[in-house]
Design a protein that fits this description.
This protein is α+β, with helices and mostly antiparallel strands. It has helices at about 5-10, 15-30, 40-50, and strands at about 60-65, 70-75, 80-85, 90-100, 105-110.
Length: about 110
Amino acid sequence: MNDKEIDNLVLTLNDEGFISLRILVGAEMARRGISIDIDELGERLVILVFNSTPGLPNLMRIQKKAKNVDALSRNGERYSIKTILNEKNRARFILIATIPANRFFNTFCWYF
């Protein structure tokens, strides 16, 4: 099912159906070990976009967090990923690459 088909399905749900879907999605995320924390979701999505986009470095998520470092490239470049959920519940993912620490050289921003 593609994103447009999912969007259309969600739009057809009444409130009870939508709440049921939210419960089912939450349970499935827990079963798969996917956090519902917005920061972790943002990190996963940014890394997925980078790793699937030609010309962008492949990123690896850091399991044990270092201060302000969420991902590493194959070249050892450090990346800090910030996720903001605005008042309209639209997520904005900001990726900041840092070399050395605290010197920002690149900022990418996506809106979903």
